[in-house]
From TrEMBL:
Assigned EC number: 2.1.1.10
Keyword Cell inner membrane appears in the UniProt entry: no
Cofactor comment text: Binds 1 zinc ion per subunit.
Protein name per its UniProtKB record: homocysteine S-methyltransferase
Protein role: Catalyzes methyl transfer from S-methylmethionine (SMM) to adenosyl-L-homocysteine (AdoMet). SMM degradation (by HMT-1, HMT-2, HMT-3 and HMT-4) and biosynthesis (by MMT1) constitute the SMM cycle in plants, which is probably required to achieve short term control of AdoMet level.
Protein keywords: Amino-acid biosynthesis, Metal-binding, Methionine biosynthesis, Methyltransferase, S-adenosyl-L-methionine, Transferase, Zinc
Uppermost EC category: transferase
NCBIfam families: PRK09485.1 (NF007020)
Lineage: Eukaryota, Viridiplantae, Streptophyta, Embryophyta, Tracheophyta
Record's subunit section: Monomer.
The keyword Metal-binding is assigned to this record: yes
InterPro entries reported for this sequence: BHMT-like (IPR017226), HCY_dom (IPR003726), HCY_dom_sf (IPR036589), Hcy_S-methyltransferase (IPR051486)
Length: 331
């Protein structure tokens, strides 16, 4: 059952985790922080709109997360798709270039961060990695279905594979360290992803990250156990976990995931606020503060999470607080 598909991808993630001292820290919400820096993301492309209008802002937010202590930058390609760019009038080639650009911006941010520290003679010994984000078909639809997993009749595995195939290839060719399949709402899309990883022979470690609204199922109602098993069976998957989910559900979810896999577990919850898919806004006052969020971190570590960060509505302050808690835990 456990560790059915240990392989190079899992080994690579484990080496990075070890090099970081036992836990890798992910960044926090990218879209959230772009908005905090003045970007207007009210667009079907969401954060990927900044690839067109303000790439410098993306680089700045990546740098802010590195300054806060993140080991992994997740690129601005979550809602960037060839189909989405084409519907804005871009050619196929231009659309592919925009995907490539999302990875290049994060690689540039890493280079600048390392250079700045080298100039100040401040050694950076922890790994800094770039994970190319792939959001779900539902994220492309921008109609809230990434939080329901309900794709109606379009939702066949072959359709989803065709939808994601070229995007995956282009992002992999851009040279990231990891591929991040994020906010996966149903098991069909997870199955499509693992088949694409094999068929396209992607040799960059990937992670599969699901989202849940109840702590037992992912948002479509499919069981977390079943979804984790799909990820576990694929040797090209280096880590599996949960993102964009309220912190209060994470403890139970990690325990479920651990029952069916030995792969490293990643968790990057949102702040606990609820997203209203119809109104396209976060419902405030249901969330937890940075302090509360971070009070969970030690528990998640004890549960066995190896990669920890934040998703929507978390900020560089959240990441700084996570990093501080982890350092205290190790002293
Ligand atoms: Zn999120």
């Amino acid at each position: 059952m456990v560790g059915t598909a240990a392989g190079a991808a899992e080994g690579a993630v484990r080496r990075w985790v070890d090099a970081a001292g036992g836990r890798l820290v992910l960044d926090g919400g990218l879209a959230t922080e772009l908005e905090a820096n003045g970007a207007d993301l009210n667009d079907p492309l969401w954060s990927a709109k900044c690839l067109l209008s303000s790439p410098h802002l993306i680089r700045k937010v990546h740098m802010d997360y590195l300054e806060a202590g993140a080991n992994i930058l997740i690129t601005a390609s979550y809602q960037a798709t060839i189909q989405g760019f084409e519907s804005k009038g871009f050619s196929k080639e231009q659309s592919e270039n925009l995907l490539t650009k999302s990875v290049e911006i994060a690689l540039e941010a890493r280079e600048m961060f390392l250079k700045e520290h080298l100039e100040k003679s401040i050694p950076i010994q922890h790994p800094i990695l770039v994970a190319a984000s792939i959001g779900s078909y539902g994220a492309y639809l921008a109609d809230g279905s990434e939080y329901s997993g309900d794709y109606g009749e379009a939702g066949t595995k072959e359709f989803l594979k065709d939808f994601h195939r070229r995007r995956l290839q282009v992002l992999a060719e851009a040279g990231p360290d990891l591929i991040a399949f994020e906010t996966i709402p149903n098991k069909l899309e997870a199955q499509a992803y693992v088949e694409l990883l094999e068929e396209c022979n992607i040799n960059i470690p990937a992670w599969l990250s699901f989202n849940s609204k109840d702590g037992v199922h992912i948002v479509s109602g499919d069981s977390v156990i079943e979804c984790t098993t799909i990820a576990d069976k694929c040797a090209k998957v280096g880590a599996v976990g949960i993102n964009c989910t309220p912190p209060r559900f994470i403890h139970g979810l990690i325990l479920s995931i651990r029952k069916v896999t030995d792969k490293p577990i990643l968790i990057y919850p949102n702040s606990g606020e609820r997203y209203d898919g119809e109104k396209k806004e976060w419902v405030e006052s249901t969330g937890v503060s940075d302090g509360d969020f971070v009070s969970y971190v030690n528990e998640w570590c004890k549960d066995g999470a190896a990669l920890i960060g934040g998703c929507c509505r978390t900020t560089p302050n959240t990441i700084r607080a996570i990093q501080r808690t982890l350092n205290q835990g190790f002293n």
